[in-house]
Design goal:
Layout lengths: L3 H8 L5 H25 L5 E5 L9 H15 L3 E4 L5 H11 L4 E6 L13 E5 L2 H10 L1 E6 L4 H15 L8 E3 L2 H18 L11 E2 L3 H11 L9 H7 L3
Helix pairs in contact: 3-4, 3-8
Length: 241
């Protein structure tokens, strides 16, 4: 009787060397995305990453709110970073572009939906969501999250996870649109906290604020007794994002 190892080897599919070579070379493309991101974004501090749906139309209240918040942030001295696409992302870049500080778009190349907006002072293009997500976190002094879909939830869950696990520094996370978020927050409380999958204190990682000035004030309050830049200890921690 053949041993288990031999049986497993017999079940392995033959490797296509062309596919393996192509996948190996993808490493260099990924490296290039990180290098370009680090080089072009290292000087944008302080900055705020703004998230929301690509499908939100310009006449929507949340589009207008994202534009107003981003204008307030830009005039207060924050670069504004969005996903570079339409909808809330466009509103964020539009508001920032009209203000005093930089408007930045971290564009993702997709088969559909994502088309870069025209309000970006700095535009980077990514093929990989994971390298793009690092750039959203690495230079952000705060996260502002407006109503969105799975992508927005992904970005929100990412920053909550990184802070909860101590992989990045604690920054303000502000959810905008209380009516939109209230069901999710109640589910956090009634299901996740109740089942013990998160602690009740984890809910303190974010605030819900609906007014543009309130968003900016909350960010400044967080940094009232410290600098916007990460400390030496935080910088070391963030090398391992």
């Amino acid at each position: 009787m053949n041993d288990v190892t031999d049986n497993k080897d017999l079940r392995r599919r033959p490797v296509d060397d062309r596919i393996l070579t192509r996948e190996s070379w993808k490493v260099f493309q990924i490296m290039a995305e990180f290098v370009e991101g680090f080089e072009r974004l290292s000087s944008i501090a302080p900055s705020v990453s703004v998230f929301g749906s690509a499908r939100t139309q310009p006449d929507n209240e949340y589009y207008k709110l994202a534009e107003a918040i981003s204008r307030e942030l830009s005039d207060a001295g924050f670069s504004v970073v969005s996903g570079g696409g339409p909808g809330i992302m466009e509103a964020a870049n539009k508001g920032a572009h009209a203000g005093k500080s930089s408007s930045i778009g971290l564009n993702i190349i997709l088969p559909h939906e994502q088309v870069g907006n025209v309000y970006q002072d700095i535009a980077l293009n990514f093929r990989h969501f994971f390298s793009r997500k690092v750039m959203f976190v690495k230079y952000a002094s705060a996260y502002v999250v407006l109503p969105g879909g799975f992508g927005t939830l992904d970005e929100l869950a990412e920053i909550l996870t990184l802070i909860q696990t101590g992989k990045t520094r604690r920054i303000p996370i502000i959810l905008v649109g209380s009516k939109f978020w209230e069901g999710l927050i109640e589910w956090f409380k009634d299901s996740m906290v109740k089942e013990g999958t998160i602690n009740a204190e984890d809910l303190n990682m974010f605030k819900i604020i609906d007014e543009p000035k309130g968003v900016v004030d909350a960010i400044f309050k967080h940094y009232e007794h410290r600098k916007f830049e990460p400390s030496a200890e935080e910088t070391e921690k963030m090398l391992h994002l």
